[in-house]
Amino acid sequence: MDAVNAAEPFPSVESRLRAAPPHALAATAGTLLAELFGAREVTLLLADYGLSVLQPVTDMPHTGDRVSAHDGPAGTAFTSQKPVVEVTSDPATELIHLPLTVRGDRLGILSVRVPATAADPATLLSLGEFATALGHEVATAGRDTDLYLRARRTRRLTLAAEMQWQLLPGLGCARREYVIGAHLEPAYATGGDNFDWSTSADHLTVTVTDGMGQGIGASLLTNLAVSALRNARRAGIGLADQAALADQAVYAQYGGRAYASTLLLRFDLGTGTVSAVDAGSPRLYRVGETGIELIELEAQLPLGMFEETPYEEQTFHVEPGDRLVALSTGVHGTRSATGDPFGERALHRILGATRQSPPHETARAVVAGLIEHFGSKDLTSDAAVVCVDWTGRAVDTGRLTPEPH
Questions:
Q1: 266 with 205: CB under 8 angstroms?
Q2: Is 0.85 surpassed by the pTM of this model?
Q3: Cα–Cα distance between 392 and 381 in angstroms, integer?
Q4: Phi-psi region for residue 339, left (φ > 0), alpha (ψ -120 to 50) or beta?
Q5: How do residues 307-342 score in pLDDT, each as one tens digit?
Q6: What residues of the chain score a pLDDT lower than 70?
Q7: At the N or C end, where does the chain have fewer CB atoms within 10 A?
Q8: Order of strands, edge to edge, in the sheet holding 323-327?
Q9: Cβ proximity of 43 and 56 under 8 Å
């Protein structure tokens, strides 16, 4: 079927993708794209855990050539989240790089070589819709096969890091009211740092958690704390009580010998009112029209430090255009060789320089700046960054705003 009519059969295309065995999505996509667009070459590339490279999905891991996730045509498509048409040495074909993104979580790139005559705007739109459909299937298939998780690795994860990545919700999320981008380092050896989020019709909850210690011990502690927070949140109770119940769970297990620092935020999507509980050491910055400010919250005890600690909520307000950046202790507390804390001048400089960058790139830039400030990629503490760009809900005009893919 030619590309002109490619948009018509998308329900059947999605059905064929869903019917493919979990490990065969790339091959099935290649077959479909050849039928629909005359594609001669199709490559599915996934971003590695450190968001530094894009690796092709192959039956045998690491058998294809990886490319940069930031430079070159594929890297540009990944960072900009826009299709990039690469003119190749073959004048009869063009290579189109399409973002593979699911509800704001950037998975990778779908690269498709098509006849040069087919690279028109309508075809680009149809290919983009195909990439979105494929992205959703890849995300679902990850439950049933290790193929896509293995393709994300440039080397073996530590056991603690394996546990943490299974706990994370992803590296991004988007709705019309907000866009979230997050980053975690050391990606292949992280232990106690975690971020989490959940959205409902009218609220967004975001947490940043830092379990004390290193390695498997820190990962087990953080798993308990995050699971307890999720359990309380899913019971429909308030933010302060979520912290209190998680505190009890951690104390019951560790008796005060280990604890987890946590920042809990709950956004009202309609009003921009944010409820917050600062249970420990993560910090929160606002980047807005008036500059960069540290949001001062009442410091309360970390989860599990003492038995039955009471917690109280505070509130503040965000305006459309505001950016919130939450940092674990391993970010704002890290010092350079000369003793300068990263959370002062260096952080402010990076947040100011990346004000117009997407949240994903801002989170990555903060960690890259932290590594430069520390002087080594071998960070002594985990570093978690969550960046939230707030849009809020516009006045209802009777027109629907489309949701992100």
A1: yes
A2: yes
A3: 34
A4: left
A5: 999 999 999 999 999 999 999 988 887 887 777 888
A6: 1-11, 60-63, 395-405
A7: N
A8: 172-175, 178-185, 383-390, 323-327, 283-288, 291-294
A9: yes
- The residue written with tokens 């077959």 in the block is 31
The residue with tokens 């070459």 is 41
What are the CB-based long-range contacts (under 8 Å, 24+) for 12-19?
13/130, 13/133, 14/133, 14/137, 17/133, 17/134, 17/137, 18/137
Helix, strand or coil, per DSSP, at residue 57: coil
Cβ contacts of 67 within 8 Å, gap of 6 or more: 45, 53, 54, 74, 75
Closest CA to 42 of 53, 56, 52: 56
Q: Which two tokens stand for residue 375?
A: 């002087």
Provide the 3-class DSSP secondary structure of residue 367.
Answer: helix
DSSP symbol at 399: P
Q: Which residue has the tokens 């009112």?
A: 273
Q: Which residues contact 71 (CB under 8 A, 6 or more apart)?
A: none
Smallest CA-to-CA distance from 13 within 135, 141, 138, 133 is with: 133
**How many Cβ atoms sit within 10 Å of the Cβ of residue 168?**
18
- Take residue 326 and report the two structure tokens written for it: 């939450």
Residue 338, pLDDT score: 77
**Alpha helices, H only, 20-158:** 25-37, 72-80, 121-141, 147-151
Residue 119 and residue 82: Cα distance in Å, rounded? 15
What is the pLDDT, as a whole number, of residue 107? 97
pLDDT at 58: 87
Q: How are strands ordered across the β-sheet holding 41-47?
A: 67-68, 53-56, 41-47, 105-115, 93-102, 84-87
As given in the structure block, the two tokens for residue 177 are 């009211």
pLDDT in tens, 258-285: 999 999 999 999 999 999 999 998 899 9
Q: Distances in Å between the alpha carbon of 387 and those of 100, 324, 327?
A: 20, 6, 9
Strands 172-175, 67-68: pairing kind: unpaired
Q: Which two tokens stand for residue 355?
A: 């004000």
36 vs 38: CA distance, rounded Å = 6
